[in-house]
Design goal:
With 305 residues, this protein is α+β, with helices and mostly antiparallel strands. It has helices at residues 35-51, 55-69, 96-99, 102-113, 124-132, 144-154, 183-196, 235-250, 252-255; strands at 4-9, 21-26, 29-33, 201-202, 224-228, 257-262, 265-268, 277-278, 296-301. α1 (35-51) packs antiparallel against α2 (55-69) and α2 (55-69) crosses α6 (144-154). Pfam families: VldE.
Length: 305
């Protein structure tokens, strides 16, 4: 699949002095999103990943969300329509509170989509209309190309393809809790599990850790966690790693993420204008899979002051 570049440019004090936005470019086509749109799109893709759905399902969902809400979690709509997909409580989609939860809303959309025989082979307009029953069924096709661009990155089919740029905010220093994580790191872990379901997350332990990592590692402060991925040399496992890495990058500003390392690549908030960069472990080792972060996504959060 063609290389894809997405960057998140922040407000005037960001690395490039540009406004907050996300851009995706595939084969010469550029898609621009706001930070909220990017987070919602990443969640739509993550819910599909949790359910084991193909990229085609994500394309259909994103095209639908584009048409229904412009990929915003709306608190209003026609009659009682709400949320990303403008689902209606009165039509059995769930309560208003549930529909405003992007994870729930995406799951409800996929529930309906999976009831359609051979939806993968249908045109976007047909599949989306079967779910939504819109008064304007042809409008979904207007967003298909943009949805494909986003889906190619957010489903991990384009490696190191989603990069976020923003000016890191100020964060208070935090100490380890009883579980060995700071509040910020714990929030990242909890958000990952809520979105993706059960994950093999390590790199911390009750009482903290004091060995096994390079000097000065965020693991020693309870600011880091590792999402393990095995077998690392499996193509599908690698793709899943990029789903996770891209999702974390999309939420980095909101969650106070400082660094993401995976698959010989590193993204950092302080150098976010550079996107994903080549990564070499401080030891200089280029052979060990763990030191190269081939078998896990490393995430650390802001140290604070």
């Amino acid at each position: 699949m063609a290389a894809l570049l997405i960057w998140w440019a922040s407000s005037g004090d960001g690395p490039l002095g540009t406004r907050a936005e996300c851009r995706a470019t595939v084969d010469g086509r550029t898609v621009t999103l706001t930070p909220e749109q990017a987070r919602q799109a990443a969640t739509i893709a993550a819910v599909a990943e949790k359910r084991g759905l193909p990229a085609r399902a994500v394309t259909i969902a994103l095209a639908t969300a584009y048409q229904e809400s412009d990929i915003y979690n709306l608190s209003y709509g026609d009659r009682d329509s709400l949320g990303l997909f403008q689902q209606r409580p009165s039509q059995g989609w769930g309560t208003a509170e549930q529909i405003r939860d992007p994870v729930y809303a995406a799951g409800a959309f996929y529930d309906a989509l999976e009831q359609i025989p051979d939806y993968r082979d249908l045109e976007i307009t047909v599949a989306a209309q079967e779910v939504q029953r819109s008064a304007f069924p042809d409008a979904y096709a207007d967003h298909e190309d943009d949805a494909r661009v986003l889906a190619s990155a957010l489903t991990g089919h384009s490696e190191a393809a989603f990069a976020c740029q923003f000016s890191p905010g100020d964060h208070a220093a935090q100490s380890e809790g009883d579980d060995g994580l700071t509040d910020r790191a714990r929030a990242v872990r909890d958000h990952l599990v809520t979105t993706f379901g059960e994950l093999d997350i390590g790199g911390f332990q009750p009482g903290g850790i004091d060995s096994g990592h390079v000097e000065g590692s965020a693991h020693y402060d309870g600011r880091a966690l590792d999402v393990m991925l095995r077998p690392y040399d499996d193509t599908e496992v690698n793709r899943r790693g990029w789903v996770l890495a891209h999702w974390v990058t999309a939420y980095a500003d909101e969650l106070g993420v400082a660094t993401v390392i995976y698959d010989d690549k590193i993204w950092s908030a302080r150098r976010s204008d550079e996107g994903w960069r080549d990564y070499t472990h401080p030891s200089g080792n280029t052979e060990d899979a763990t030191l190269r972060h081939l078998d896990h996504v490393h995430i650390d959060v802001a140290e604070g002051s």
